[in-house]
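Saturday, quiet lab. Running sequence design on the structure tokens for the scaffold JK sent over.
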């Protein structure tokens, strides 16, 4: 099962990306599964809060390279409609939604974590954007969620430089909210999620709506440009270089 869904007696639902041999990539099918799971848990009275995490010691290594080949613009539009729906649901989720990050959160994995209103990370977690390494712009709302967390200047440099951010720095700059001991991120995320579940829901929802007000613009921008880039020669070179573990030779086309 590529998305494992469990709910405990306290009403905590844990969604686990479960493809550990590949560090839990996020392809189109996975995004659909997450969207549908969130839609179901949002209206399930037995669920009070949700934790999103990854299996095998990593959150997610990002987008599924195998799933990023050239497609028609119509197909890309359908796929980005799923992205928009998923990320919008996460940012405005009516119950506490917390990302629990162990190991890597890279590319789309970073975007998925930051779509959650709260992020708990292991002290050994690591973060990177890495989109331009494969000839793409950030997507899944990252153009909005990253600067909202760490400011425009830091976000710009992180997206352009693709450097790795260690957990201690991630907390210092606001990329994550709380650090946990290695292996304890899911437990701490669950504790914080259930604690937040006891707060008044309506003010919480209005606050989330306010902070997500610029998200739709970023999602529309990404959906307009990313399909063009995915079909570009540079993106094909980026995917090949990634698979061959070499430095890409980009040509600007």
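Result came back. Writing it out in full:
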């Amino acid at each position: 099962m590529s998305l494992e869904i469990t709910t405990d007696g306290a009403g905590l639902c844990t969604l686990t990306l479960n493809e550990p041999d590949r560090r839990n990539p996020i392809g189109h099918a996975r995004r659909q599964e997450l969207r549908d799971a969130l839609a179901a848990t949002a209206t399930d009275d037995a669920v009070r809060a949700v934790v999103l995490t990854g299996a095998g010691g990593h959150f997610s290594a990002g987008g599924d390279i195998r799933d990023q080949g050239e497609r028609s613009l119509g197909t890309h539009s359908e796929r980005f409609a799923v992205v928009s729906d998923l990320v919008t649901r996460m940012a405005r989720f009516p119950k506490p939604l917390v990302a629990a990050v162990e190991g890597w959160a890279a590319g789309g994995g970073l975007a998925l974590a930051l779509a959650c209103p709260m992020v708990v990370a292991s002290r050994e977690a690591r973060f990177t954007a890495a989109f331009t390494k494969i000839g793409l712009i950030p997507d899944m709302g990252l153009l909005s969620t990253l600067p909202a967390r760490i400011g425009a200047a830091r976000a710009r440099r992180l997206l352009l430089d693709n450097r790795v951010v260690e957990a201690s720095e991630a907390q210092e700059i606001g990329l994550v909210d709380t650090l946990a001991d290695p292996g304890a991120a899911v437990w701490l995320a669950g504790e914080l999620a259930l604690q937040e579940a006891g707060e008044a829901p309506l003010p919480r929802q209005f606050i989330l709506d306010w902070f997500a007000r610029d998200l739709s613009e970023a999602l529309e921008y990404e959906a307009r440009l990313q399909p063009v880039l995915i079909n570009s020669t540079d993106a094909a070179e980026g995917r090949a270089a990634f698979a061959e573990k070499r430095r890409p030779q980009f040509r600007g086309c």
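Notes for JK: Residues 73-91 form the longest helix (19 residues). Residues 144 and 215 are 6 Å apart (CA to CA). Ask whether to fix the surface positions before the next round.
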